[in-house]
Amino acid sequence: MNIITPTADGSNTLYNETIGEHYHSKHGALQESKHVFIDAGLKFVSTNLTEISVLEVGFGTGLNFILSFEYCAANNIKLNYTSIEAFPLSTAVIEQTGYAAYVPEIIWADFISNYPDALKTPQQLTSLCTLEIPHTTLAEYQSDQKFDVIYYDAFSVQHQPEMWSDEIIAHACSFLKPGGTFVTYAITGKLKRAVKACGFTIEKLPGAPGKREMLRAIKG
């Protein structure tokens, strides 16, 4: 069961009782998504681009997606968004998050009306946005597509250690284009070594509220 939980910045998150963890930071769900995935990831990568492809590990509530959709729409960037999700939330649960307040009404409407079908097949939300949510695990995910940026937003290593093994990190990184960017809220010595072993250049960045640092890595 998932329980709606307020966070420190006033935005909500969900507490997943099965995993034993929140979907977003208790210090601020909205702040974390913007800081880690939009500012350090999407904005960093999309400079001078007119089209960008995102692979997200962990669609969850869809917060990273709607913020990405909003940014790309405002900047006339075509967004091709693929997000792996083994345990998709229901539309009703996503609507209860209150995230509709954080993006224009049309962005939210395009997302929520296409969400159920995006779990089955890629959906063209607008001329500038496609959304696909493969209902599978990262370990089982396969694609010939190479992406510009990976949002690695799995649950923490304490609650989902299998998502942070050297093998699964290497598998995720294999989907990036040369010069592509990997961003995540976490940073540990083990994670840095795993990403570096895949031929990446490591950057330690200031973390979102509640975390001292985060990881950004560029594929060589």
TrEMBL record:
Stored InterPro entries: MnmC-like_methylTransf, SAM-dependent_MTases_sf, tRNA_MNMC2
SUPFAM superfamilies cross-referenced by the UniProt entry: S-adenosyl-L-methionine-dependent methyltransferases
GO process annotations (BP): methylation
Keyword Nucleus tagged: no
Keyword Acyltransferase recorded: no
Molecular function in Gene Ontology: oxidoreductase activity, acting on the CH-NH group of donors; tRNA (5-methylaminomethyl-2-thiouridylate)(34)-methyltransferase activity
Protein name stated in the entry: tRNA (5-methylaminomethyl-2-thiouridylate)-methyltransferase
Native species: Pedobacter ginsenosidimutans
